[in-house]
């Protein structure tokens, strides 16, 4: 059998978990949703692939990962909006909680960050299964954070959403990285491909992207599969169980009851530590709060209201210039950091000689008595011309 870059025609065929969705294609279409071409009933892979593109760029190669076999992306026919379909049990906790937070009494509350349930379709041949229709969301770092303010806004929205859940007597119990997502629709005015998010739906053209700070980005809590909803008058709101994405939670137990609301605080604190503190060097202002949220003793952790209040306070106390600055990766070299700072200023229309002098002040000097290093001098000289190419040339030659 012919092979192209390790791919054969056999590789492109639908897996068993994919035929589940292919067989639902007519039903979904009758309800206003269509799947990608790969899942059309009459689909056949194009073989051999076109000579001008790689196999991985074609719809034929974009199969459904096995770990997501019960979920699939789709398009709402009426407006072209991307959605996610998820097959769940009619009696599942996830469906019950999602329905509650999408009910008339709470769905329009601006603090509600639970993923909206757009529609619930009864499976045509399995009365025990329901197909949830929800907005198509992306991980919070796809695309990556641009500025410190982006990170602070993300954290505040998530904490506000978690507090909203807690006020409604619902503990999420699994609010880790994979279950905190965002709606990036406004950032991609020309759309994007659900599996190749850097590309337009044609899979080959880079998708134009707007900065988060220039549009409205909403963050959501998703997946209520192990969440617990308590009655308001329950005196003891404790649980048992060790399931969940965050395995470092100290109190998890199958036998000893624990407070799931304080567990939520730990899980979110661990997310902030892993995705913010460990990746960016200029968000240290959140470190004390993260430490308190991930305290070993649940009793010493703040509740959601206190954590949100503390987050908002530190956000207000962080100078505007610092908040608007780019999020600096911990793995950046010093030279790389200086160049990215200069590039940011250029993009904002604020690159001048004084700004570059400030940026290059981070670079090591030869000695206190002999003045700036040759690299500093070259960068500062290049900045006088307001020419980003000159700065790039200096940086590239030194890197």
Automatic annotation (TrEMBL):
Keywords: ATP-binding, Kinase, Nucleotide-binding, Transferase. SMART domains: S_TKc. It comes from the Eukaryota. Transmembrane segments: none annotated. PROSITE patterns: PROTEIN_KINASE_DOM. The keyword ATP-binding applies. GO terms for molecular function: ATP binding; protein serine/threonine kinase activity. Residues 1-389 form the Protein kinase domain. This is Protein kinase domain-containing protein. It comes from Trametes pubescens (White-rot fungus).
């Amino acid at each position: 059998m012919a092979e192209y870059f390790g791919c054969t025609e056999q590789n492109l065929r639908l897996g068993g978990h994919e035929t589940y969705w292919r067989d639902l294609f007519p039903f979904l279409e009758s309800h206003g949703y269509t799947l990608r071409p790969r899942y059309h009933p009459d689909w056949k892979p194009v073989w051999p692939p076109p000579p001008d593109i790689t196999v991985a760029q074609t719809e034929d190669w974009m199969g459904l990962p096995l770990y997501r076999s019960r979920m699939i992306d789709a398009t709402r026919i009426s407006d072209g909006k991307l959605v996610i379909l998820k097959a769940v049990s009619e009696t599942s906790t996830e469906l019950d909680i999602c329905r509650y937070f999408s009910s008339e009494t709470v769905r329009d509350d601006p603090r509600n960050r639970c993923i909206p349930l757009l529609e619930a379709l009864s499976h045509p041949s399995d009365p025990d299964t329901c197909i949830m229709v929800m907005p198509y969301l992306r991980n919070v770092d796809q695309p990556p954070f641009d500025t410190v303010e982006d990170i602070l806004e993300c954290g505040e929205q998530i904490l506000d959403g978690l507090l909203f859940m807690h006020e409604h007597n619902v503990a999420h119990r699994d609010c880790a990285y994979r279950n905190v997502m965002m709606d990036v629709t406004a950032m991609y005015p020309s759309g994007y491909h659900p599996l190749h998010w850097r590309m337009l739906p044609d899979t080959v053209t880079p998708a134009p992207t707007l900065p988060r700070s220039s549009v409205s980005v909403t963050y959501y809590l998703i997946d209520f599969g192990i969440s617990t909803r308590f009655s308001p008058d329950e005196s003891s709101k404790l649980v048992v169980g060790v399931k969940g994405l965050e395995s470092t939670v100290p109190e998890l137990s199958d036998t000893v009851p624990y407070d799931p609301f304080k567990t939520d605080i730990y899980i979110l604190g661990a997310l902030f530590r892993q995705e913010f503190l460990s990746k960016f060097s200029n968000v240290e202002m959140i470190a004390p709060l993260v430490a308190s949220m991930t305290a070993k003793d649940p009793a010493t952790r703040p509740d959601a209201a206190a954590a949100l209040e503390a987050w908002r306070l530190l956000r207000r106390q962080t100078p505007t210039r610092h908040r608007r600055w780019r999020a600096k990766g911990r793995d950046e070299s010093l030279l790389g950091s200086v160049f990215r700072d200069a590039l940011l200023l250029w993009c904002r229309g604020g690159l001048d000689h004084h700004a570059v002098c400030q940026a290059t002040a981070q670079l090591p000097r030869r000695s206190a008595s002999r003045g700036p290093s040759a690299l500093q001098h070259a960068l500062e000289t290049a900045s006088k011309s307001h020419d980003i190419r000159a700065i790039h040339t200096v940086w590239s030659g030194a890197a």
